[in-house]
Amino acid sequence: MVDNVIQLNGVSKSFGKKTILNNISFTVTTGEIVGLIGPSGAGKSTLIKLALGMEKTDGGEATVFDRQMPNRLVLKEMGYMAQSDALYDQLSGRENLKFFAAMKDIPNNDLATEIERVAKVVELTDSLDANVSGYSGGMKRRLSLAISLLGNPKLLILDEPTVGIDPALRKKIWHVLHAMRDDGHAILVTTHVMDEAELVDRVSLLLDGKLIANDTPKNLEASYGVDTVEQVFLKAEGEQDD
Ligand SMILES: Nc1ncnc2c1ncn2[C@@H]1O[C@H](COP(=O)(O)OP(=O)(O)OP(=O)(O)O)[C@@H](O)[C@H]1O
Ligand SMILES: [Mg+2]
User: Fold this and answer.
1) Which residue has the CA at smallest separation from atom 25 of ligand 1?
2) Which residues does the chain have with pLDDT short of 70?
3) Which of 29, 54, 132, 161 is deepest in the core (most CB within 10 A)?
4) Which residues in 69-209 belong to E strands, given as ranges?
């Protein structure tokens, strides 16, 4: 069994003259949810794209399941929800799910059941046959999340999955993520919702190109002498400005 599912060793990335990630080492292992937080523009999405081979590193090494990405076989074993939805607007939700299920080689026999399963998680069952062009922003987000769950992948990478999702459903989604974690899946999630950062096993805080904190929410709160991850975030950001 591979323990380090995502591994970044000394990864750097600049755009033009601006250094976004400066010699970052970072892992996500099986059976844990890692929450990647940091101010807007800190480089969270860039870090994910480097891991997935969607952007090239300037230095260092990034692997997923011990393979350099992009790798077709690895892509089939993971679910990725990008920050902006990449959906086919002129197709229905169900047709979108069928399309992405085919890319993941989900057997035809399992297709209908699997689509029902993931649609239920995000409460889209009743809207599956409507065209995505008529979906609200939150519904599109939920469909993207459902797509990432297809095939019950061993690795889930979710870039701000709960934007536009109401609190009750958000709670249910976190319940599903925890159940997957308990089942040995690895999950990397970015969020600006600090309540959600309390629900992860490990918080990685990205600030000014560096990972300045990487620990359980409780340990971080203790070492910063505060009660919440939100206060950790604000305090760390304040210290950085000094
Ligand atoms: N392809 C690109 N070309 C040039 N600059 C880029 C590119 N992609 C990202 N950037 C810049 O890199 C920085 C980090 O962007 P990134 O999207 O990774 O941040 P983020 O932490 O995900 O922010 P947010 O919380 O707003 O999603 C930003 O300054 C952004 O403008
Ligand atoms: Mg982002």
Assistant:
1) 40
2) 1-2, 242
3) 161
4) 78-81, 155-159, 186-190, 202-207
* Domain residue ranges in the chain: 1-77+194-242
pLDDT, residue 69, reads: 87
**Ligand 1 pocket check: which of 15, 54, 205, 208 to mutate, most ligand atoms within 8 Å of Cβ?**
15
For residues 211 and 22, the answer to whether their CB atoms sit within 8 Å is no
Looking at residue 131, what DSSP letter applies? B
CA distance 6 to 192: 22
Q: Tell me how far apart the alpha carbons of residues 39 and 42 are, in angstroms, rounded to a whole number.
A: 5
Question: Taking a C-beta distance cutoff of 8 angstroms, is the pair 29, 3 a contact?
Answer: yes
Strand blocks (E) in 16-126: 18-29, 33-37, 59-64, 67-68, 78-81
Radius of gyration of the chain (CA): 18
User: Alpha-carbon distance 106 to 164, whole Å?
Assistant: 29
The CATH number of 1-77+194-242, from 3.40.50.300, 3.10.20.30, 3.40.47.10, 1.10.10.10, is 3.40.50.300
